[in-house]
Amino acid sequence: MTSVKHAPLILDIAGTVLSDTDRRRLAHPLCGGMILFGRNWVNREQLSQLCADIKSVRSDLLICVDHEGGRVQRFRTDGFTHLPTMAELGQLWFEDDAGLSGSGALNATNAATACGFVLASELRACGVDFSFTPVLDLDFGKSGVIGDRAFARDPRMVGVLAKSLMHGLLQAGMANCGKHFPGHGYVKADSHTDIPIDTRSLKTILHDDALPYAWLSTSLNSVMPAHVIYPKVDPRPAGFSARWLKDILRHQLGFQGAVFSDDLSMAGARLIDGKEVSYSQATVTALQAGCDLVLLCNQSTPDSVGGGQALDDLLAGLAQAQQVSAWLPSQVSEQRRLALLPSSKALDWEALMQTPSYLNALSLLP
User: Fold this and answer.
1) Fold classified for 9-364
2) Which one is catalytic: 66, 262, 263, 292?
3) Rounded CA separation 303/110 (Å)
4) In the chain, at which end, N or C, are there fewer CB atoms within 10 A of the end residue's CB?
5) Neighbour count for residue 78 (Cβ, 10 Å)
6) For this structure, is 167 an active site residue?
7) DSSP 192-230
8) 62 near 131, Cβ under 8 Å?
9) Is residue 190 among the annotated active site residues?
10) Which of 192, 194, 312, 313 does the annotation list as catalytic?
11) Tens-digit pLDDT profile for residues 201-233
């Protein structure tokens, strides 16, 4: 077995405190982090303690959350700011100040930076390292799962507003994640429950949906591909496609950061080449295709199939794949994971509440 370290798995837990089983899974050398959900939240004190307990298992574990704003915001009470949707930031673009053409766009970028700063600084004050944001999908007006999570239909607006939001994240010491490459906004189906198929050509996608990825390739720290099939490019969903991840994202668009798979429990991840596969097989396929990190979510709860057994099966299955060289750990991928961890010390909540930069950012939110 190779001695190269690579911890590609991002797992979750069932409750609001760590159980002995949770600690065992998080301590596994193939586990690189944990993703939080609303079920893991009671209040700020509990969240801070949970994050401290996770770090006590292994200080290098990446604590993640989907915390975009609008309807995708896991923590909403006990002082957390209710963040605007990305669509609200996009709408500001067109609201010029009286007699000052173009001022709306500048106000929108300022608000986007403020949003990123508030989002990241509040999470970091509670011990969360990383949020899967911003959404780079375009709003074609037909995707229910994307909808107001997108900034706009125009890829130029999306690129500018996303970069502004990413600047706010950076100011608070948090990395970013552009999603869902190369674009989930055109298809109506929801990849949580279906397998969306986008029949457009590669040329069309690259000259529209994927433009923000090209423009932001030097600013993005990580990317999450879509569980969408683009049959004119590859018969596999983008997250399992070396054509999309290695040839197009890496080589053609020049992206150098980490690539996360989307949640492997989603319907869009269960079929590869027309066959239903296990979580271990899906993980190996995603890693071989070019993913650095793989998420498996919502399999730890008592009401999930197997009551958490899927997580143990995945850890064992990936270890077995490594032993037989079906998957080879990548030191480059591990370095990309570690680069997502904050490098600066976060302010605690009380100190943050009195910081002028934070108070100013709050005043700029729509």
Assistant:
1) TIM Barrel (3.20.20)
2) 262
3) 44
4) N
5) 14
6) no
7) TTS--B----HHHHHTTTTHHHHHTTTT-SEEEE-S-EE
8) no
9) no
10) 192
11) 999 999 999 999 999 999 999 999 998 999 999
